[in-house]
Each structure stands twice: as structure tokens, then as C-alpha cells.
Amino acid sequence: MEPLPVTDSSDAQSSNMCKLIPPTLRENESYHVFLSYSSTDYSWTLSLVDVLEGAGLSVCYHERDFTPGRTILENMSECITQSQKVLLVLSAEFVRSRWCLLEANMSLFRDCLERKPMVPVLLDQDVCVPLHLCHLTYIEARHPDFINKLLHVLCTPNSDLRGSSVVPYQPPSVYNGKALLPLTAANEDSLNSWDAGVYSEMDVPDQLRLIVRDQSTYRAAMAIINQVSQTQVWLRPLWKRVVAYIAGLCFWKYDDRRRILLEMQKAVGKANVLMFAQKVLMGCRSTSKIYLVYISLDSCRQEFEKQFSAQTSSEDMFRRALLYFSSGYTCCLAKKHFPFTTAPPSGSSGHLPGGVCFCHYVSQMLERGQWLDQ
Ligand SMILES: [Zn+2]
């Protein structure tokens, strides 16, 4: 993004900016605001520093204010402690960078202790905001009145910010049916239409850590999905397919793309059998992307127990429902769109207020005969 225009001091005199008086720094405070940003946004951030300092605020940022010879963590911890507020410059690169997330996590930690307000400034429109920041209200850098809005917040004493749109840290709002970060296949860039996406089997992504706490279950679930690429994709690479085609092996009659997507959806169903206890379901609508949704299936599971109590295994019925329908259900939840009327069946209020619960979805799909392998 373009750096902010330099404000002439005479302009500042005539604008509202000069009416805002920075809060008095207390004995243990050295700065009004600590800036956390990605180095790729350095020039924009520097232009912001000029504006803020021009308005009389003391600003702390690491390029200038960190003490040489101390670790980054020591520096960061001290600077945040000495600042009244923490400003996050949210760009796609900020979110991607672990270093910045670490900073964000640490300010959250401080927040818990001291209720230090965080002020997120949204630099790009398409930023996928980390879950533990998504409850905060942003100030958009592209807004015409951005500087005034920001100065107003920074010049408001912390004690007066309680209950305002920029709030001190609160636990992230996670609710049933909330779409979480979508996962993108590691091989997305080289993914052929007949190939299956492969996903990282390393630790749970940072943005999901507050939700998915069991690393080993998550890894096992991803390994199930990755097996599709290993066991179901025939004739890789391309030249083998061309040879097979020339040799007249009519495997071309299979619609590979659909078949592989179906195999991935079944694998995601299997993975969901593991994941549902973590209150997370996955859904696969394309081979290169997996949606994740936060959802508790406890009530729906009890409904299965009631419905199938006469039969030996309601547990088995629930498991089969997960295998066949959980991927499609998750995609509908993530997109907030269902292929049928979303009113719960008569006499039932459903188990997902304002949405379609899993047992309602399963009964609708069974009525339509839409099993995954048909
Ligand atoms: Zn239900």
C-alpha cells in the first residue's frame, strides 16, 4: 500500500488532529503505542510513525527502539510493557509470518494480565485474520478518515476505552458453525485436475491452535486425507497418461477429476470421525482446499442415540453418517448455504440455532438419496 501522505504542520494546526491530546504517560510507561508489523510493510509503517509522532504521540517500533544485544523477546516484552497500546498492522504478510504472530500472541498474553488495548489496522482487504484477533474491531487504512479515527483511539485514555468499539482483549468468539481458516493444499501450484491435494501433516496451524488442541489427532486426520494422493491417483506423471492414452487404454472414460474429489471427500469423512471430538469438522469441495468449521455434534449425537436405540449400534450409525455426509455438511456450513430449505423438521428446533444441524442435514440427504458414493 502507498505510504501515507506527509502532513504539513500547518495542515495539522488547522485539522482536528491538533485538538487531540495524547494521554499522559504514567511512571512505568515510555510510549503511547507499540507498533507490530511485517517488514514488508515497513515503508507504510514508517509513514504512519511520522504522522503519529507529528501528532505528539511517542511511538515504539523495533527497527529503531529495540536495544541491541538483547533478544527479540526481551526487547518486545519490555517495549510492550512500557506502551499504553499495541497497534497491529494487519496485512497478508503479517498473518503469514510466524514472527508477527508471536508478537500478536505475546501482546495477547500481556493483555490478559494488564488489559492493554490492541488496535488492529487492516492494511489489505483480503487478509485472512487470525482467529485470536478476529473478535477485534479494525480500523481500515484505506478509509478516508483513517488518520483521524486512529488518532482518536490512540489519544483516548485506556480507562475510557472500555465498552468502545476498540476493546481490550477478550477471549475469541467461537460459536457453533463458525468457519475457521481454510487449508490450502501444499501442492496447490502444481496440482493437476486428476491429482489429489496433499496437506501439511505438521503441527496444527497457528490460527487454529486455540481450537484444535490435540496435535496427534490432527496429524492423523491429515494423513488419512493425504493417502488419497498415494493410493488413488493412477498414472502420475503426465507422460504416463499420454502413453496410456496412445496405447488405447481407455481409462480416460473415467471422469478422473470427479473420482478423485469423491475419494478425497470420503477420506475427509474418515478424518472427521477422528476430528469431531475436537469440535472441528472438515469439508472438501475441491481437491486443493479444505474448509474447517467449529461445531459441536453432542446434541446431534444424542439424537442418533434416541433414534437408533432399538438397534444395536447407534454409535455405528453416527460414524457412518460422519463418513458419508460430514464433508458435504461442513462445506454447506462454511458457505452458509444449504441445497434445501433450512427450516428444521416440524416438532424439532434443531440443534444448531439459526442454522442446519447435522442430523437435519443427514435426514434431508437420505430423503434425496444423496449418499456420497452414489
Ligand atoms: Zn441435530
UniProtKB/TrEMBL annotation:
Q: Which domain of life is it from?
A: Eukaryota
Q: Name one Pfam family in it.
A: TIR_2
Single GO cellular component term: plasma membrane
Q: What's the protein name?
A: TIR domain-containing protein
Q: Where in the cell is it found?
A: Membrane
**UniProt xrefs under Gene3D superfamilies:** Toll/interleukin-1 receptor homology (TIR) domain
- Assigned keywords, A-Z: Membrane, Signal, Transmembrane, Transmembrane helix
One GO BP annotation of this record = toll-like receptor signaling pathway
Q: Which GO terms describe its molecular function?
A: signaling receptor activity; triacyl lipopeptide binding
Query: What region holds the TIR domain?
Result: 29-154
* Database matches in InterPro entries: TIR_dom, Toll_tir_struct_dom_sf
